[in-house]
Amino acid sequence: MNVTNTIEAVRAMRWQNPTATWGLVPTMGYLHEGHISLVRRARAENDFVAATIYVNPAQFAPTEDLSSYPRDLARDLALLQDAGADLVFTPDNALMYPAGFQTFVTVEGVTAVLEGAARPTHFRGVTTIVAKLFNIVQPTRAYFGQKDFQQTVVTRRMIADLNFNLEFIVCPTVREADGLALSSRNTYLTPPQRAAATVLSRALAQGIVLLNAGERDGDALRQAMTAVIAAEPLARLDYLSAADPLTLAELAQVGEMALLSTAVFVGKTRLIDNMPWPSLTAVTGGQ
Amino acid sequence: MNVTNTIEAVRAMRWQNPTATWGLVPTMGYLHEGHISLVRRARAENDFVAATIYVNPAQFAPTEDLSSYPRDLARDLALLQDAGADLVFTPDNALMYPAGFQTFVTVEGVTAVLEGAARPTHFRGVTTIVAKLFNIVQPTRAYFGQKDFQQTVVTRRMIADLNFNLEFIVCPTVREADGLALSSRNTYLTPPQRAAATVLSRALAQGIVLLNAGERDGDALRQAMTAVIAAEPLARLDYLSAADPLTLAELAQVGEMALLSTAVFVGKTRLIDNMPWPSLTAVTGGQ
Predict the structure, then answer these.
(1) I want to staple A159 with a disulfide (CB 3.0 to 4.6 A). Which of A13, A164, A267, A272 is the partner?
(2) Is A285 near chain B, with CB under 8 Å?
(3) Dihedral of the CA atoms A119, A123, A126, A131 (nearest 10)?
């Protein structure tokens, strides 16, 4: 496994064999089984696998946890090696945002709601760095986790609109045994907060139960899920949504599919989770 | 020469031999010798040459000349064939901006002045379509004309900031014998307007004469060039600039290099021109 912090080294390895296929797994490091599941799928589907580790300042607001975001490069590299990565790109800020940097990729529409409403500059930071990483690695396929569902919608939109020449693959959220979605930010939680954090998946699962039982009223679904979160003293709701999985517009009535999603503060830690209905493959068109 | 309006056909030809080099010449059609000089240089430097012909609505304001912009596809294709192009991509609006399109590439800073100040949404349209064409063709080298100098500054900035994997080459402005820079929009001019249109190159040349004679005061240069344009009854000045060629900021004092540029209305036709000093290669770093 090659580890490099230069674009030249990435391109030299990428283009050594121009006909080889490459899978890309972009990460902010502090890897967990969710990330590793992406690397494994990329490993199975491509000749070579590149991962990137970069905590992208452009997707954090000044009030957010950029400085405290967890980092452990040695552990990350060991996990990536075990999972079969061939190349790990670990750029620094001076390489990604040199003096004079002034170009941004912006997706409108689907970035206006949910995470985009809560974090106004977040997605501009995401799409800009993802465009840069796509251009640096030029992968055949890119692998993203369902956990950041809106990010997958925004990225898919960017890929289509800007004609990036790659296949976009969304992999299912990996969860702890009690339902908590894996997240690097789970490490911020105290033991009581960790116990309370299952409230996100419990609320969403309640929504899925109601959908499966025939409930189609958007407000009824949102109210039922909100009630689950309100019953958890350590949790404070940021948003709760039952939306169209393509446009992310809130649904008055659920039709053939829906995305249930929520953001919740547990202490100072902001956690997100989502559940697509009837299934991930149904709402992402089989990818 | 292959002519196609589908992305699939472009990619099939582009990647038939993955190690071949490709030059890209993006155009809005109605080709003149300026465009053809780009194709010839691309022909000399690459295994294959792709040209694109697309009048991009996103770079026109509602008040501008999108509907009347001259078009002659048959003539353009004959010229491209003569110049040695291998592939011509002629997409339509439904392919470039399908329903739901909502992604834009924006360069800040250098787009705020000159053409960007006069045409506020122009460069967002340019950078978005250029990013799309780069991703569709994935050229080894891209060729742009110096005539749209600010466009070359903005595009170079986008390429660097978003890490597009290509070489960017700016070719000198081609002029008529009397100094008028070639432009598809010159066809709008009546004979008296055509005669008056030499005022742009005459004004800029006066600035170069003064620079060569030792004048370094920005205001003195701008005033001398403005006086040339004011003396032409059929011309109405839009802007006149003596700027840093990298940042496009107006210069109080000229140092090692400058970009002299102007936009002038001749009748209803808006013409632009520029002259770099001491030379194009000096101000573009040798490209």
Answers:
(1) A164
(2) no
(3) -170
